[in-house]
Design brief:
Layout lengths: L3 E6 L5 H10 L12 E3 L5 E6 L4 H6 L5 E5 H7 L4 E5 L5 E8 L14 E4 L2 H11 L4 E4 L15 E6 L3 H5 L2 E10 L1 E5 L7 H17 L1 E9 L3 H6 L8 E4 L5 E9 L3 H10 L3 E7 L6
Parallel strand pairs: 1-3, 1-4, 7-8, 7-9
Antiparallel strand pairs: 2-3, 4-11, 5-11, 6-9, 6-10, 12-14, 12-15, 13-14
The structure holds adenosine-5'-triphosphate, 1-O-pyrophosphono-5-O-phosphono-alpha-D-ribofuranose and magnesium ion.
The site of 1-O-pyrophosphono-5-O-phosphono-alpha-D-ribofuranose has 11 residues, from strand 9 and helix 5.
């Protein structure tokens, strides 16, 4: 059986979450700081640790079968790969930002201005679409300091909390794209059996992350009202308790509904509510 290769970021924003996801899929591998390639002992897979910019091309060329990388990097490298799964981490936006005190009020004011970025391809397409002609200055990092140094009038860079913009006297001006980490594969890789198995494991971990396992006690009289509030995977399990008119209800609740549902459940007569994380949900 052919051993698959998956490329993940060696160090940086996506490294830790990528390693955690693969470990949660039950894959055993060493993760030394010095590792560039690490075999998985219990699945025919090798993990390549790379600079994130190189991952899309490795996958496009089939050197790696799979990769975990930000959508922003895929768009910037303009590769032909299959998007297999959004992964829910590394969420950020690519934004144009301008100094707090400036005369740029509308997009048209960017005409003839210098914009520093590490994303010249994405920015170029965005400006073309908007009919703006700016001077795109490509630099490889620390973009936020360039207006202060007189290198540019604006920047285009990734933002999540906005803290880096703020501490450099900049404010967001326009949204260019939003991004998160995704699993990509070489074209046609969706049809490979091993890749499908790995994707099923990944999906079961992601599904579990979005939900909580809830156990609660309720008087039989209130059972219907409580069940009506529970959007379970299927119907909830109802288990008799030693006290004859009480039962325990076991179910799975989407995390996003969690707090709303908990207060409604208490109002409906639920007691002793225990909430537990779920490791995997296999459908
Ligand atoms: N502030 C942020 N919050 C959330 N996700 C982010 C943030 N900044 C970047 N990302 C996402 O994480 C990816 C990796 O970011 P990082 O800063 O580690 O890249 P890098 O410095 O280019 O790393 P490398 O050394 O691998 O080239 C980005 O391409 C983006 O998708
Ligand atoms: O809005 P914030 O939460 O402040 O995040 C934004 C910063 O995060 C990223 O850089 P990172 O910290 O990953 O460092 P790098 O530029 O050296 O890769 C990005 O390039 C911004 O500088
Ligand atoms: Mg990089």
């Amino acid at each position: 059986m052919k051993t698959l290769k998956i490329a993940i970021q060696k160090s940086g924003r996506l490294n830790e979450k990528s390693v955690e996801l693969l470990k949660n899929c039950g894959l055993n591998f060493e993760n030394y700081k010095s590792s560039l390639i690490s075999p998985v002992s219990n699945f025919p897979l090798e993990i390549l640790f790379l600079r994130d910019d190189d991952i899309p091309e490795y996958v496009q060329d089939g050197i790696a079968d799979l990769g975990i990388v930000g959508e922003n990097v895929i768009e910037e490298t303009e590769v032909e790969v299959a998007y297999l799964q959004r992964l829910g981490f590394g969420k950020c936006s690519l934004k144009i930002a301008v100094p707090n005190n400036n005369d740029i009020a509308t997009l048209a004011d960017l005409n003839g201005k210098a914009i520093a970025t590490t994303y010249p391809v994405i920015l170029g397409k965005y400006l073309k679409e908007k009919g703006i002609t700016s001077d795109i200055r490509t630099i490889s990092g620390s973009v936020e300091i360039s207006p202060g140094l007189g290198l540019s009038d604006a920047i285009c860079d990734l933002v999540s909390t906005g803290g880096t913009l703020k501490s450099n006297g900049l404010k967001p001006f326009a949204d260019v794209m939003s991004s998160e980490a995704v699993l990509i594969g070489s074209k046609g890789s969706e049809n490979n059996d091993l890749i499908q198995e790995l994707m099923q494991r990944i999906q079961s971990v992601l599904r579990a992350k979005e939900t909580k396992y809830v156990v609660l006690n309720v008087k039989r009289d209130n059972l219907d009202a409580v069940i009506a509030l529970l959007p379970g995977v299927k119907s909830p399990s109802v288990v008799p308790l030693a006290e004859a008119d009480w039962v325990a209800v076991h179910t799975v609740i989407p995390e996003r509904d969690f707090w709303d549902r908990i207060s409604q459940l208490k109002q409906a007569g639920a007691q002793g509510i225990v909430v537990m994380p779920i490791e995997k949900i296999i459908l």
